[in-house]
Structure formats: structure tokens, C-alpha cells
Amino acid sequence: MNYPLQFRFKIVALAPQIFVEDAQGNSICYVKQKMFKLKEDIQIFSDNTKSRQIAAIKANKVIDWSARYFFYDAAGNEIGSVGRQGMKSLWRARYDVFNPGDDTTDFNLQEESPWVKVMDGLFGELPIVGMLSGYLFHPTYLATRSDGTPVMRVRKQPALWEGKFTIEKLGELTVQEETNLIYSFLMLLLLERSRG
């Protein structure tokens, strides 16, 4: 993949949608979250025509702040999973990324500065001024190996009518690890964007 990748959220859509593109503007995937589901059920397509589903994300629990989200390919095989660290995520978002069929943490995803997200959320609630919060505060999330080596970073970008994030690769990854981390960041952004 050609980095940096761009994640774009449609703000005015009823159901959350994410467009993922590489550095040249080529579509990597299109994500559509189903509405009114007690358990998360997210479909990932090759592009926004939705002609070919390439993956799915499903929660293991009904609406739970410490749920684990499993990634499946088009054939239904598990790719990996991500889970929020419950109480530890109240102040600073923290997630664990797992290999398929394994309960050993492969990567950790963590918010780099929780104050940025707090300020983004507070300014976002102010009338008129809140429309500019997308230009002022930019939360970032870092993926590290269990030994602390950084491998990927997601940073919010200035945008007025959409949520825009850039993902950059910081270290060497296998194709399976890369896919698992991209889907983990997709899930993280879907869960965290409502918090600022």
C-alpha cells in the first residue's frame, strides 16, 4: 500500500461511512456500519459501489465498552481482532490488537494526548465556534508492538464538513499485521469519534 492512507468520514450520512484511499487517491476500501444493531456489524467493501465485500467486523458482545471486535475476510475466516481496555480507556483511549485465534496482545493502540481530544470535544459543542474545532485540535493515536516499537500513527486532519484522518506507517509490518492494524484503526475511529 502507498502511505499515507486517508480515512474520510461522511458527517451528514445517517449510517457511518468511511472512505479509505492511498496516497495516490486509489480506493483501498469503503466501510459502512449498519444502523440500529445491538451488536456491531460493519461491512467493508472494495469501493463505494458495494459490489464486492472484502471483510466484516463483528462484536462479541451487545453494546459493551470492553467488547472485542473480530475481523473476518470475505470467506468468513478470522483475520484478527481488537478490544478496548475498559476502565483504562476512560481518560486515554487504549486498545489491544490480537492475531486470529490468539489471546496474546500483538499491538497496542493508544491515544497520544488525551487533552487534545478533550479540547476538541469541548470546542465542538460550542455554537458557531464549534464548527471550527476540526481546524484547531487534532487527536492522534499510535500503534506500538508489545516491546514499545511504534509501527503506525493516525492523526486527525483539518476538515469542515467531514471527519478526515491520515494513517502513516512507521515500521515494518507483514501484510497480515498491516491489514489487522488498518481494521483496528477503523474500529477505533468509529468508536472514538463520538467522544471528540
| Straight-line distance between termini | 29 Å
Estimate percent helicity.
10-25%
Structural class: alpha+beta
Radius of gyration: 16 Å
Count of discrete structural domains: 1
What's the arrangement of strands in the largest beta sheet?
1-2-3-4-5-6-7-8-9-10-11-12
How many individual helices? Answer: 3
- Our estimate of the beta-strand percent is 35-45%
Q: Oligomeric status of the shown chains?
A: single chain
Which ranges are low-confidence, i.e. pLDDT below 50, for 5 or more consecutive residues? Answer: none
So what's the CATH class? Mainly Beta
> How do the helices and strands follow one another from N- to C-terminus?
EEEEEEEEEHHEEEH
Q: What's the number of extended β-strand segments?
A: 12
The CATH topology is what? Answer: Porin
Q: What's the CATH H-level superfamily name? A: LURP1-related
Largest sheet: 12 strands, antiparallel, barrel
Label the CATH architecture. Answer: Beta Barrel
What is the general shape? globular
The overall pLDDT average reads 83
Structure, described:
InterPro entries: LOR. It holds the Pfam family LOR. With about 200 residues, the chain is α+β, with helices and mostly antiparallel strands. The protein has a single domain, classed as LURP1-related (Porin). The protein has three helices and twelve strands. The protein has a twelve-stranded antiparallel beta barrel. Strand 1 and strand 2 form a beta hairpin. The radius of gyration is 16 Å and the shape is globular.
